[in-house]
Amino acid sequence: MKIIELVSLENGAHRNRKTDFNVEIPDGWAIVSEDLSTPPTFPFVKNLVQNESGMVVGWDPDQESYDAAMESANPLLGAIEARIAQSKEDLATYRIPLPGPMASSTVLRRNARPS
To answer: Which of 46, 47, 54, 2 has its CA nearest to residue 28?
Structure first.
């Protein structure tokens, strides 16, 4: 059984619990339908939809809150991705095509320096 707090935290996430046995549902929480797929952004979801018995049967991923939380958890993430992209560009300048039958292969120039 999975339960979720209906009101999100300040960062957009919803507190949630998963148990293998029945528990008393606290006020402000609801059972999540077992048929409901969990998005990759979970617990960052929004627009929770409840059926007539109060069970959560629908939600939307909250990509914006998820991205903000990931960025605040790892402030270097953007810098790392930019450095990887730059490294790929730099590597492309080191590659030179081989002549003849091995034309589809490339080798790295020794002692090559970026210009």
So the answer is: 54
Residue at 41: amino acid letter: T
d(CA 110, CA 55): 65
pTM over 0.85, yes/no: no
Residue 88 three-state SS: helix
- Check: CB of residue 56 under 8 Å from CB of residue 31: yes
Residue 87 has a CB neighbour count (10 Å cut-off) of 10
Q: Distance (Å, rounded) from C-alpha 24 to C-alpha 8?
A: 20
Tokens of 4: 């979720």
In this structure, what token pair is assigned to residue 69? 């939380």
Q: What are phi and psi of 13, to 5 degrees?
A: -80, 155
Contact 25, 31 (CB under 8 A): yes
CB 27 within 8 A of CB 77: no
Task: Give bridge partners of residue 3 from the DSSP assignment.
Answer: 17, 31
Above 70 in pLDDT, residue 95?
Answer: no
